[in-house]
Amino acid sequence: MSSHFGIDLLFETQKEKINSENDVLIIVIHWILCKNKFRSVGVGDNKIYSDEDRPTELLPQGWNDNQKAYTLRYVLDKNIFILYGIVSDETIIINLLDGKTLKTASLVLNPKEVIKAKSGIAIEDFVNDSNAVIEKITDQLVKPLISSETAKSATPGPSTNRDPLLIRRVNPPPHSGIVDPRTIDPLRDIGRGDLDPFGRGGGMLFQPDFRHEFGPRNPINPNAPLRIPPGARYDPPNPFGRLDPDNDHIRPPGYDDMFM
């Protein structure tokens, strides 16, 4: 099938409306946009797509009423694009505006050099070196906009197959011959280290000198043992060196009554 499929029919439907080389060039650009899945939704510069818009591959009514400024609306994935064609001296400045991002692709052509005739049957009858012209329009006007749209829709988000509820397995380094049995089934062997006399220890909850971590420190020597504040009662923490109770300095009432 020809790579120019459809453009001959498009020229045939518009042959009575072609008034200039600029018209022929706009028809070619319209066909290239439709080939890249754009659809026409009328004329003007309204950037909002509505339910009243009817996408079609046909050129809209009045598309070339203004021979100095063409303004056509297109839609791609419900996103409006505006095609501007501004005639200046011997050139025509083509801009394609993304109505959502306001990103623009531009192209400048000389219709007198590109277009050979305003009538014919095939695209070769209208356009000089048609393949080169089509490639230039596609590369400079279409690809800068649709490539970014395609990339945004085709770029996958971050994904992972790891279940967040499972305990992540951490194996020893490859050079180590030790295999931790907990990596085989991390839930089954909880507490195994406490039952295995040769198992790996779990560590201490507190340092041996944990009292220094929580109590006040000697400001001069932080490693010195704690001292008893003046006037505070002190009970030795060990049985060594304990004395017997003191004698009673005050005798109880009736201590000398043998009949009590």
Automatic annotation (TrEMBL):
<dbReference type="Pfam" id="PF11566">
    <property type="entry name" value="PI31_Prot_N"/>
</dbReference>
<comment type="similarity">
    <text>Belongs to the proteasome inhibitor PI31 family.</text>
</comment>
<feature type="domain" description="PI31 proteasome regulator N-terminal">
    <location>
        <begin position="16"/>
        <end position="148"/>
    </location>
</feature>
<dbReference type="GO" id="GO:0004866">
    <property type="term" value="F:endopeptidase inhibitor activity"/>
</dbReference>
<dbReference type="InterPro" id="IPR021625">
    <property type="entry name" value="PI31_Prot_N"/>
</dbReference>
<dbReference type="InterPro" id="IPR045128">
    <property type="entry name" value="PI31-like"/>
</dbReference>
<feature type="region of interest" description="Disordered">
    <location>
        <begin position="240"/>
        <end position="260"/>
    </location>
</feature>
<dbReference type="GO" id="GO:0000502">
    <property type="term" value="C:proteasome complex"/>
</dbReference>
<dbReference type="GO" id="GO:0070628">
    <property type="term" value="F:proteasome binding"/>
</dbReference>
<dbReference type="GO" id="GO:0043161">
    <property type="term" value="P:proteasome-mediated ubiquitin-dependent protein catabolic process"/>
</dbReference>
<keyword id="KW-0647">Proteasome</keyword>
<protein>
    <recommendedName>
        <fullName>Proteasome inhibitor PI31 subunit</fullName>
    </recommendedName>
</protein>
